[in-house]
Amino acid sequence: MLEIGPAPILAVIVGVFHVALYVLVRGTARGQLLFLVPAAILGAYAGQALGMRLGDPLRIGDFGLISASLLAWVGILVVVLIGTLGPSGEGG
Length: 92
Fold this sequence. Notes:
Elements: H1 6-26, H2 33-54, E1 59-60, E2 63-64, H3 65-85
Antiparallel strand pairs: 1-2
């Protein structure tokens, strides 16, 4: 029987929370939402793994919340920077 641990589920919750916070502060996602959510979730999952190895001061069980949050924001920033540096779509 397949058993899913709490880390992927918590990574989804943390990633979606931070994307929602980004959109709330920014006011819009400018069509990047389909890229922001997976990047934040993958960042949160990677941050959780890193926090588990390095020791995270704020943990939910084995889930490192601070490191997951930091890397979720790194994922969001990567998508935003790629969107900023990419072509603007204004032919010219």
